[in-house]
Amino acid sequence: MPQVFHRSTNTFSRVSIFGFLFFVAAATYGLALLNRSSYVTEAGVAREQPVPFSHKHHAGELGIDCRYCHTSVERTASAGIPSTQTCMNCHAQIWTDSAVLEPVRASYRTDSSIRWTRVHDLPDYVYFNHSIHVQKGVGCATCHGRVDQMNLTWQESSLQMEWCLDCHRNPERYVRPREEVFNMAWEPPSNQLEIGRELVRAYKIQSLTDCYTCHR
Amino acid sequence: MSGALDIEAIRRRLATGDGRRFWRSLEEAAGTPELAALLEQDFPRQVAAGLGVGRRQFLQLMGASLALAGLGACTRQPQQEIVPYAKAPEDGIVPGEPLFFATAMPLDTGVYGLLAESHMGRPTKLEGNPEHPASLGGTDVFAQASVLGLYDPDRSQVVRSAGEIRPWSAFFQTLHAAMQTQRTKDGVGIRILTETLTSTTLHDQIIAFNSELHSARWIEYEPINRDNALLGLQAAIGTDAAFYNRLEGADVIVAFDADLLGSGPNALRDTRAFSGRRRPGGRKPMSRLYVAEPMPTVTGAKADHRLAVRAGDVEAIARAVAAGVGAYGVTAAAAAGPHAQWVEAVVKDLTAKRNSTVVVAGPAQPPAVHALVALINDAVGNTNATVANVRPFAGGREQVAALGKLVEDIDAGKVDLLIIAESNPVLTAPVDFRFAERLQKVPLRIRLGLYEDETSRLCHWHLPAVHYLESWSDVRGIDGTTSIIQPLIAPLYDGKTVHELLAACMRKDESDRVPTSYEIVRDYWSRQRAGDSTAFWRRALHDGIVEGTTGAALRVDRDVEYLPKMAESIPLGDGLEITFRPDPAVYDGRFANNAWLQELPRPMTKLTWDNAACIAPVTAERLGLASGDVVELRLEGRAVRAPIWIVPGHAPEAVTVHLGYGREHGGRVAEGVGFNAYAIRSSTAPWIARGLQIHKTGEHHEFATTQHHHDMEGRDVVRGATIAEYQRDPKVIREQGEEAPGAGETLYPPVRYDGYAWGMAIDLNACTGCSACVIACQAENNIAVVGKDQVSRGREMHWIRVDRYFEGSADTPAIHHQPVPCMHCEDAPCEVVCPVNATTHSNEGLNQMVYNRCVGTRYCSNNCPYKVRRFNFYLYSDWSTESLKLQRNPDVTVRSRGVMEKCTYCVQRIQYAKIKAEEDDRTVRDGEITPACAQACPAEAIVFGNQNDPESRVAKLKAEPRNYGLLAELNTRPRTTYLAELRNPSPDLEKA
Amino acid sequence: MTSPVLKPREDRRPPIIAPGHTFETVTDRISRVVLRKKTPRGWIVGFALSFALMMVLFYTIGALLIRGIGLWGINIPVGWGFAIVTFVWWIGIGHAGTLISAILLLLRQEWRTSINRFAEAMTLFAVACAGIYPVMHLGRPWLAYWLFPYPNTMGMWPNFRSPLIWDVFAVSTYLTVSLMFWYVGLIPDLATLRDRSDSRIGRTVYGMLAIGWRGSAKHWHRYETAYLLLAGLATPLVVSVHTIVSFDFAVSMLPGWHATIFPPYFVAGAIYSGFAMVMTLAIPIRRFYGLEDFITMRHLDNMARVMLATGLIVAYGYAMETFMAWYGGNPYEEFLILNRFTGPYRLQYWLLITCNVILPQVLWLKPIRMNVAALFIMSLVVNVGMWLERYIIVVVSLHRDFLPSSWGIYAGSVYDWSMLFGSMGLFLTLLFLFVRFLPMISIFEMRTLVPEAEVKEEPL
Asked: What is the pTM of this model?
């Protein structure tokens, strides 16, 4: 009876049997990477805006305090996006004729909002509160990165649950003195852990990993 | 992030749907064949829906769900925009921070003083205004549900004439022309029909109107009116009077067919005062409540001695009592017959406790009874003490008579121009007035209303009215307390107020601008108050009360000028009796399009989406009827088909029907629900009639009830005792049930709660079962409406339910109410079994339910001994109707299909308070957090707080010996516990 | 019946293989079923029917994904309905396979050889059917993978305290092992088919599946070892799987679920229904393909005996539940039992007792055990009975629990039924494909039973 298979089939079958395992492992790993990639999280992707507002220029070079625009960050859940009025406080005097700022002036003239593109967008079932984080010594830069070095703003962190939990589970790794919260340049000192532990005690920081902390 | 994608899929599906909206979509959703058959009986219109799984939709969704399965975890958020203000508003609106404004809601002759919660200019939730004497911080179902009424997509949105959409200008032209001709003849042909007048500004406008057009006439009509009380008091006191009670001073309360805790303008005030006197260990002894009524009401349920008598027999009893206490001019008592003992006990108590009792009769009782009641109150010295008489606002008016006069005038052709504001006479007028047919004789008919309803259909012009949350006005309560109604939002649709309509009539010249209702109201009040009107105005708006208007009592001095007369009694025939009542959910029909109210289980029947002909078990037996049998009710040659519902504790040989159903027009929710009881309600017998005939039709009606079993099966679900027993030995409560296992009786290490330990105590003694908590919860927590069919399948979504049990004989049972929210068990059975950790325990003892983690195994619900968990079997939340989205509470997730949900103790409020507290580095104060249910409760039956703090109210209540845990023997260690129910029966009657 | 003839062992019972067979005849008879050119009309008709039924299942699944599980009759309080009932039922049926192949193998029950192959197949297909339910009964089936512990961006693990998670492992393990067992068992026969098939495709496909089996002594040696190891591995599963399935109920606190007797009595019930199903399938097949020589009355008789035994254990279970309700003095338990006897579902309950306890007693009688038709009917009765048992456990316990106010009623909707029968369609479809393309009886093992093999028989 003629052979159905060429002898090489033996090798093939052996290879494929073992290869399969590696394939599965690789696929799983790949998927895990994809999930955390900026393709999915959109972290690090600078967003086009109707007005090319540069945090680097305003916060960095001019050194305007975060709270000048994000007024409610210390009082309420949302940090607050400045009204056109706020822009015009300065731009009524300077760069009054720059074409780039026309949308701003138009908005002020017509009393119609500027439609900014959202950069940090949590799912609807997550309830984040700025004021309490600021209160407990979580710096702006800890989550938002060096905004003062961004021309067009992008989202620094993945904003995935594991990322939130990392800090909620061990706050001491990230907290800083309250007075440093708005300091973009602040770097965690070498003894961050012990300082962190003290701050956690001082600011009565609980490691809030209850679901209801964020989900309602 | 998959939750977001899930939502995307749903949006896609909704996009393909054929404009399906709101609760109606649910009957569609449930279109299985055998159900379609069932629907055919109930709602023929909806059968078309069926199970519409088109090929495309099918593939699309298969695709979608496969994609979901694969990529569930790696989803990109849809691109969103941020739209900040161009110029920030001054009044401190900060995104995410709610603001509260005082306003008021008029209903009947009364008012609800309210605080409205506003998110970015959207009113989302209403709370009682603690400053307001008529609400004292409490609310009821109507007030709570009214916020949904504001956003109701079925509200009329355009001016319509003969079916055509017309601009306001066109209407104003017509109006002006008509007014000009009327001016020439002193307005003799003008009739203005409103509901009961409670707005001082409107009253002022009408006076002005009349001073100009003397012959114009103004009529008030509401189907639920106070005519009888007015006539009765008139006879007894000799002047127009209304009354309100001061139950806080009442040791004994006798209610003659009066649902004083459940309905009427004083219900909230009375409930608060009543529950205040029912707590053991209060300064004053516990009060005693006698009730004689046909249909069980929440008042009857709380009674220490409830007499189930036909409404028509109440007069004899009242007369006997009056004679017993030696009321003026009441001589020979008609023999009280079988109720002699009850009467005796009442008389004994009334005479024993002079000046500190209250006797009250309901609006359904004839003038004679009201007169008798007034005389009794006189005789035992209650008048001016616990019963305050007041001048009825704008002079009392007999509304039925007034409407009758209008009908005559129409027949006589005297009416050229009829303006109907709000009132819906085509539906609600006494049937013998044949109003619909009369109405069409009027040359020019104008209707201002929230809905294009039965009346609008028959008018030349329908004008969209504005909801009270959109309008400026004012309203005066029974006791004179006046509140400014201020708008929370600009009118959603191009509506006008009755103020503006009248002002438009008054214009001399067509070119004159119609003043806004703000100008009208503001102008009126600046005329009232000399001096700094701005400061006064600010104050009035802020407080929600115009200072100095409260408590204008009318002193009645008997012996001076007036000798009381008895209003003579109208003899009733005999035979089966029928009584007409306002519905506990849709009132007189005005709330019929409010889905929250339609789906609210009625406190006594636990029916939803229906009214019924309620009868006693014995009567049902005699007539061979069962619940659900459709019968024809025949009265004076008129007939209506109604399904039977057997109500334990109902008076025998009597039928009770509730008004406001069987609507033909007035919104997709209202239409085709229940039967129209107005069809047999005549002006001669608007409340009580005899000689009713019942004819079986052999048909059967499917009711949707939320509770099928009404007996406690001898389980210690609701515990209770008499006050005497309890004072003798407080342990009596604990001994009624099995002890919970001690904390030591487990192999697991004990869990310690060091920080806050949230807990709730529900006082069954205070709870009347009014169900305000249910609607409040629904409004606060974005709870979906599921529709009649889904309710009948046991899929209602209410997070807090009010269980109702009957105990004892079916003819005269004791009636218990028990609100059941999530128990937040410390050893929660639901948590162990959830495979994905979607329900877990917080370190403050909250049983957390995380919708976005839930995959929907429903194991938690199976293992919950209280069955308080609710499941989204379909996509119940409305994701498509824009106006409804405005009502949603932004602090609570809107749930999607396939997830479990349940009471959270209003965790959004807890978190808000905690964050505020931590920011000023303090702990949360007791009473700082109030869940929606507790806040709405007029009886203060629900108390929430930190039970670790021994000083907190909840901790103190839980320390009381009448505190017990439901099913505690299962060692669930519930955080929600109950305070047992105590009764205060009369020793004499108890012996008998 | 054939009169007793020369047999390997002195035994008055019917032979496990009809006399007069040789290696050739055995091989030929069994492989012919697969290798015959034209497909018998009966097969085509049967396949078409079950395929249509399977389409009903797919339609139902589609509708469920689009509209939601509200299409079913479930509600609050009855959160589980047909889906879980049928899941447990299929899993139970899946037990016979492993029991026969593993345990009877270790117990040297030769008679198993002619039925183990398709008993194993049946197991696989039953578990496949069962597998659909836990996924489809979810509110959000597309998130079913959250039940698996995998490192995710949520930084969360599933709740290992939940019996449903144990289920995930138990069932998937069982499926894998059964699959291995079945396949390993097939290898020598696949080789036979490869060699006997005269179409190129046949040779290639069977060849690949046979993964180069040459039947050398080395092959046989390794084969025996592997098979024995697998048998050892599978044996505990027979007990574990349904024990864990029973935990889904026993771990809860619901009266009627919260019972320590559940594990043994679920396992017994599983084997009970499993054998019933084997019988339901074996009888028509042996008839249709004329395999009476291989699946003899001896087999049917033995299976009937097993059914009788397990049936009695199940009956004991019912009795104990009732006894404990009275003896335990827990009012909720007491009420539950009374509610079973006299409540809204009393009809289903007494029908269950009839099917599972009363009728099967006829199996005591040899004439019945020797009557193919009677056995066939009995097997059907038991299948129905076992489905009803799960229905009673799931629905009746749920519909009236602790608080009378939350009591409700349950009835399966059209979609419940279409899902049930649809799954049977899937089951039969797979089975038809199996009997057409694979030897439904283990050829090489049968060959060890023919007299010639007598001397060569090696102890396993």
From this structure: 0.90
